[in-house]
Specification:
Layout lengths: L2 E4 L2 E3 L1 E4 L19 E5 L16 E3 L2 E4 L5 E5 L8 E5 L14 E9 L15 E7 L7 E6 L5 E7 L5 E8 L8 E7 L3 E6 L2 E7 L11 E4 L11 E9 L5 H15 L33 E5 L9 E11 L2 E10 L6 E6 L12 E6 L3 E8 L4 E6 L11 H8 L15 H7 L15 E5 L5 E6 L3 E5 L5 E4 L1
Antiparallel strand pairs: 1-2, 3-25, 4-18, 5-8, 6-7, 7-18, 8-17, 9-14, 9-18, 10-11, 10-17, 11-12, 12-13, 14-15, 15-16, 19-24, 20-21, 21-24, 22-23, 22-25, 26-27, 27-28, 28-29
Length: about 475
């Protein structure tokens, strides 16, 4: 594949869908068909379903672009003011949007909070994903929700005049601003919940359910607009049957390319390659083979003013994924950067890329122990416009510094050296008091205190001379 990426920077993009399972087709309608009841992509501010159904009511919602598959629904007023989105359980034309005794609900959710087991504070209150009726009012109430700490997921029901019954309790661990594919599947004999295509736990069958006088269900809150899940929702699907585990894992693998690897290590889950700075013949702050191993001649050798990846192969060994590929095009003796990400966005420079190593043209390489999610590789040339030791490709994809300014933050140190020493090339370190020693003086100009990286309390004589520092 030969693709110009940015002016004066030639790169190549390879898409590898690793571990992708293709799900079987939805069963054809029959006398009692298994059906996808309805779906909601939340791509417009009218919040229409895929069948064109309008919501019953909504308030305090935000349409967000940039995460997930297109626009997303953001519902989070931190339980200060109501926010809700209600849909009919049964439409006026008789079509059904949600079943209670046998069915499945699949959605993508990105919390604005982290679970306490991830070092956060959770939603702070009971957070509803899907709910019918109100809890604590003797019912009828039927809901899928998380606890205030964000560490436990519940599927529960309460009947008129009765106590609440938990059909299912599952441990969860969420990190803020990461996408999770959540699936609840239930029948009168059992219930299950899945996170990112993996079965979390089994629960009891549904023994009680709301009566037909309940007309709508809520997404992301209770039916008063409180007890909000607090986050973004996308691709909500409802079914009138229990989904097959292979379908659930296959759908997650297929759609995770839009959401990144939907785990707290998501787009950052690629291993970080070791780098060895080089000074000759030119300063290279990030260089070396990195994770690229088993370098052998590719068998063909094409020189070109472009570079690209070819002969790609992926395989699994003991649960780990490895890939091999060839670098073609380019010129002799020039090293080319290899970058990787698990989640593409537009423009590509906004994605989270990892430097994987450097290779040469006409050579085949192997990278072992990658994530099982989708992996995208990109090549970068050796061009370094500002001669700061970082290639233009590295600056645009990884450090996000200015490839035409050797000192992006203006603190007197080249961007390349800041990367080598571990300081932030986007922040003027000279203005960060915690990263320097700061000296204070008395009114006549005598040194009296040192604070910062080197902190000293001083003992002075009567003339102001320093007798002791500790």
């Amino acid at each position: 594949m030969k693709t110009p990426f940015l002016p004066r920077l030639i790169v190549s993009l390879l898409t590898l869908l690793l571990g992708l399972q293709i799900s079987h087709a939805q069963p054809a309608p029959g006398p009692n068909p298994n059906q996808l009841l309805n779906s909601w992509g939340f791509s417009d501010t009218n919040w229409l379903s895929a069948k064109g159904n309008l919501p019953v009511a909504f308030t305090n919602l935000i349409s967000v672009f940039g995460g997930g598959n297109g626009n997303d629904l953001s519902l989070d007023t931190t339980n200060v003011s109501p926010a809700y989105l209600f849909y009919r359980i049964i439409e006026t034309n008789g079509s059904t949007n949600l079943t209670f005794t046998n069915g499945s609900i699949s959605l993508w959710f990105s919390p604005d909070w982290s679970s306490t087991n991830q070092g956060g504070s959770g939603p702070g209150a009971w957070g509803n994903l899907i709910s019918v009726g109100l809890a604590g009012t003797n019912g009828p109430w039927w809901a899928w929700y998380v606890d205030p700490t964000g560490t436990t997921m519940y599927f529960s029901e309460q009947t008129n005049g009765g106590a609440a019954t938990n059909f299912l309790t599952a441990p969860v661990s969420f990190a803020a601003n990461y996408w999770y594919n959540l699936v609840l599947s239930y029948s009168r004999t059992n219930s299950t919940v899945y996170t990112n295509g993996i079965l979390v736990t089994n629960g009891n069958g549904v023994s009680f359910w709301p009566s037909t006088n309940i007309s709508f269900f809520a997404v992301g809150s209770d039916t008063n607009g409180f007890f909000q899940a607090g986050g973004q929702f996308d691709d909500l699907n409802t079914y009138n049957y229990q989904l097959d585990p292979l379908l659930i894992s296959g759908n997650f693998a297929m759609y995770s390319i839009f959401y990144g690897d939907a785990t707290p290590t998501g787009p950052l889950s690629l291993p970080i390659a070791p780098s060895t700075p080089a000074v000759l013949p030119v300063f290279q702050a990030v260089s070396g083979a990195g994770l690229l191993t088993n370098a052998v001649a590719s068998g063909t050798c094409i020189t070109s003013n472009k570079i690209w990846i070819t002969n790609a192969v992926a395989w699994f060994t003991n649960g780990a994924t490895s890939i091999s590929f060839s670098i073609e095009g380019g010129s002799n003796g020039i090293s080319y950067d290899v970058f990787g990400t698990t989640a593409l966005v537009s423009p590509a420079t906004n994605a989270i890329w990892t430097w994987l190593g450097q290779g040469y043209h006409c050579t085949n390489y192997t990278i072992a122990n990658l994530t099982n999610a989708a992996v995208y590789l990109m090549l970068g040339t050796a061009q370094d416009s500002d001669q700061d030791g970082l290639t233009d490709a590295y600056e645009m994809l990884v450090s996000h510094t200015d490839p035409h300014n050797a000192d992006t933050d203006g603190d007197g140190m080249l961007d390349g050296w800041e990367v080598v020493y571990g300081t932030n090339p986007l922040i003027d370190d000279s203005q960060q008091t915690a990263q320097r020693s700061n000296f204070t003086y008395d009114p006549v100009g005598r040194l009296e205190l040192i604070i910062g990286v080197r902190s000293e309390s001083l003992t002075n004589d009567f003339e102001g001379n320093v007798l002791n520092a500790q």
